[in-house]
Amino acid sequence: MAGNEFAGKTVMPFYTSGSSGIGGSAERLAELASSGDWLEGERFSSGAGDEAAEWAAGLGLQGRRS
């Protein structure tokens, strides 16, 4: 996270996993970043490419640039 600037950015972490939950990873990333608007993360089962793509499309971020 060092050297990255998240001020003025909204960050929504997501990941795939066969069994593990996100635990406190999102909170720890936000602490390390020390800036940005960090939202709750989302977990997808491994191999959930279509499901993850549908979720991302539903965020309404297409065409947004920051």
Describe the structure in your own words:
This protein is an alpha/beta fold. It is 27% helix and 18% strand. The protein contains 2 helices and 4 strands. It has a two-stranded parallel sheet with strand order 1-3. Strands 2-4 form a two-stranded parallel ribbon. The radius of gyration is 13 Å and the shape is flat. The mean pLDDT is 81.
Radius of gyration: 13 Å
For the largest beta-sheet, the strand count, sense and barrel status come to: 2 strands, parallel
Label the overall shape.
flat
Quantity of strands, as a count: 4
Secondary structure layout:
Elements (H helix, E strand, L loop, with lengths): L9 E2 L2 E4 L7 H9 L3 E2 L3 E4 L3 H9 L9
Parallel strand pairs: 1-3, 2-4
Jot down its keywords.
66 residues; two-stranded parallel ribbon; 27% helix; alpha/beta; two-stranded parallel sheet; 2 helices; 4 strands
Task: Give a summary of the structure in a few sentences.
The protein is 27% helix and 18% strand.
